[in-house]
C-alpha cells in the first residue's frame, strides 16, 4: 500500500496538493479541538474546586 501511495503522489501533483490541504485542515482542527478540550478541563477544575469549597456547607449553598 505504501508503494501505491508513493506512485500516486509522484504521478499526480493535484493529489499531493489535496493531501497537503487535508493535512493542513487536520492540523487546524486538532488545534481547535485542543483549545476546546483545554477550556472544558478548566471548567471542570473550577467546578471541582467550587464543589470542594461548598461541600457540606449549607450556609454557602443557601446564599
From TrEMBL:
It comes from the Eukaryota. This is Uncharacterized protein. It comes from Rotaria magnacalcarata. The lineage of its organism: Eukaryota, Metazoa, Spiralia, Gnathifera, Rotifera.
